[in-house]
Amino acid sequence: MRFMAQRKRFRDLSEQEILALAISSEEDDARIYRGYAENLRADYPASAKLFDGMAAEEDEHRARLIDLHTRRFGKTIPLIRREHVAGYYNRRPVWLVENLGLDRIREEAEAMERDAERFYLSAAARTSDAATRKLLGDLAAAEAGHQATAGELADAHLDAATRDDEDMAAHRQFVLTWVQPGLAGLMDGSVSTLAPIFATAFATQDTWTTFLVGVAASVGAGISMGFTEAASDDGELSGRGSPVKRGLASGVMTTLGGLGHALPYLIPEFWTATAIAFAIVFFELWAIAWIQNRYMDTPFFRAVFQVVLGGSLVLAAGILIGSG
């Protein structure tokens, strides 16, 4: 609250400060676009050219704003940035967006231009001073021009075939980095924990003991799968992406796969908990089959046969061992 109180309100800014704020915003956006370009250059060169062009446009507008400031107020530009003004739009850090894929970066760039235009339009509508109103209107028009320029640059650098190629490459990278290790983890967590959980359940008919065994098996398998995935391939030669991301996907999904049919044993009544656990196992196996069909292009019925058959065999083994 103290930090918010120290920030200036937009309506309290002078015309010079508004112009300085616009200059710093243009500079920040140019840096963001260049960051996008560098992150995409190796895998998506056409999109990198798009963001290079958008950064150049931001530089051009910043230069025009600096010329205007020099004519009106002199060469000394006040230091005022987005974080100094209450209610001013913020930008997400480049590192946060870059990890979400090509489409997310494109969407973020479009949102950047829309946010700036809307802000300047609404600010102009609330301003009674004619000079300030004209300045804000000019900035809104400049941001609208940025959107038109972005469209022109996209047409120049991203024809339909190029965009399709980059989208396919992005989808393939998503599958290799997230889906494949996550699916392997989900299969391991869902199937491999069936035997110890249901063996314990039928051997003891104690729901709390079964729950503890299930949690231990799930967490242990998740840690093991996560470290194994991360350590098995650094992604440099295989192109499978960051080992940290793959290890995280594998470890988390392994744990969730096991916890799914362990959590029902928090219910004290044994047969109620077991019936719910059976139902969850059924949905887990069908979910695995669906993911295989959706992302790995495995024929659906073959995926169902493989997963359901394998899961049923492990489940039966656990029940037989526990009942014996």
UniProtKB/TrEMBL annotation:
Membrane-topology annotation of the record: Multi-pass membrane protein
Record keyword Protease present: no
Pfam families on file: Rubrerythrin, VIT1
Chief place where the protein resides: membrane
InterPro entries in alphabetical order: Ccc1_fam, Ferritin-like, Ferritin-like_SF, Rr_diiron-bd_dom, UCP035918_rubreryth/DUF125
Transmembrane segment boundaries: 273-291, 303-322
Location within or outside the cell: Endomembrane system
Keyword terms: Membrane, Transmembrane, Transmembrane helix
Domain Rubrerythrin diiron-binding positions: 17-151
Name listed for the protein in its UniProt record: Ferritin family protein
Organism per entry: Sedimentitalea xiamensis
